[in-house]
Amino acid sequence: MTAQPAPETVTVTTHRVKCDGADDLRGGAALGHPRVWLEIDEKGYVDCGYCDKRFVLAGDPHHKGEKEMMPGDLPEPGDASVA
User: Between 3.40.50.720, 3.40.50.150, 2.60.40.10, 2.60.260.40, what CATH number should domain 9-57 receive?
Assistant: First the structure.
């Protein structure tokens, strides 16, 4: 069974990010999920537990840029090889 890639990847410049699942929807958070604050750790990315949106820290050695990033460049959530 092959893991599916994150549905959306967003490049950010801070370690702390917020997600409400509806930033780009008219009506905002009322149409998404509860707002959560997420912290990017040494992996260089964090996935939202509600909508699976992946936030990648710009300039991180694991980050190649959204246009160059291919599935498998970053470990998938739940990957046993990720510490």
Answer: 2.60.260.40
